[in-house]
Amino acid sequence: MSGRSTGTCKLCLRERGLRESHYLSKGLYKALRNLHIENQNPLLVTGKGAFRTSRQMTAALLCSDCEQLLSAKGERYTIRVMSNQKGFLLLETLQRMTPANARGGAAAYKCAKSTEVDTGALAHFALGLLWKASIHTWAPAVGVRTRVHLGPYQEAIRGYLRGEAGFPANVVVKITLCTDRESQLIMYGPTLGNAKGSKTFNYYELLAGGINFGICIGAGIPGTDRRQCCASSADKWFFVRDCRERTLSAAIATTGTTIDKPQRHDRRP
Ligand SMILES: [Zn+2]
């Protein structure tokens, strides 16, 4: 592998040969590649615009074992069940279940007893991506710098990702599966957003393959949010709805442009 160097792996904290880690994993790009349009690269929404790009953000941060651990504990499952060219396996699985609540096109499911939904893998994927965004300032070819600041939660999440600690306290991962096509083709985040009705915790959002992950961090997370966590709550709620408006407004808010007409295209590598 090119760019191989030795250093302290950010996840296991050992001196190891370091791999070029991808901010957004190769599998994500591959799964989201849209075969029905001329430019087959996925649409990535960042603070600087909307891009169809195959360029990936990489940095030598993790050893090979830790790369594989992130893949095995979260990425591989998430990529398999999210919306891709084969369908949207996770959505199809939920829609075979009986919802606890349903109104219009929206529904809520309790997944705690499901043997088909790996709620822990989805949480591991989301927190893995958020943690990666916190350990390095990613400066990709498109000229955007991405970094989130997790304070003391960075270490708690590292321990959880590594399997050295349980699911971190005062962290909630909420999952909404998007039924609209737009949300299934766009990816963004992790982005710091405003959680409704509260300034007492940080709220990050990321969207990949029709799965909207809302991550709450802080001691002030209300009980209603805590009860919705896909990993640590008793019921492990999953929500299904049309997220088109939310996705488009998030995309427009972060880009200042429309997603329908990407302003820039990358040159083919
Ligand atoms: Zn490592």
Task: Chart the SSEs and their pairings.
Layout: E1 5-8, E2 15-22, H1 26-32, E3 43-46, E4 49-52, E5 58-63, H2 64-81, E6 83-84, E7 87-88, H3 89-95, E8 101-103, E9 106-110, H4 119-135, H5 153-162, E10 171-178, H6 181-185, E11 186-193, E12 202-208, E13 211-217, H7 223-226, E14 237-241, H8 244-255, E15 264-265
Parallel strand pairs: 3-11, 4-15, 10-14
Antiparallel strand pairs: 1-2, 2-5, 3-4, 6-7, 8-9, 9-14, 10-13, 11-12, 12-13
Helix pairs in contact: 2-4, 4-5
Bound molecules: zinc ion.
Helix content: 25-40%
First CA to last CA: what distance? Answer: 18 Å
Low-pLDDT ranges: 35-39, 141-145, 255-269
Rg, rounded, reads 18 Å
Query: How many strands, which pairing sense, and closed or not: the largest β-sheet?
Result: 10 strands, mixed
Q: Write out the distinct hetero groups bound to the structure.
A: zinc ion
Topology order in helix (H) and strand (E) letters: EEHEEEHEEHEEHHEHEEEHEHE
Given helix and strand content, the structural type is alpha+beta
Instruction: Note the beta-strand portion.
Output: 25-35%
**Average pLDDT value?**
81
**Shape annotation:** globular
Strand order, main sheet: write it out.
8-9-14-10-13-12-11-3-4-15
* Count of DSSP H/I helices: 8
Total count of domains: 1
The total beta strand count reads 15
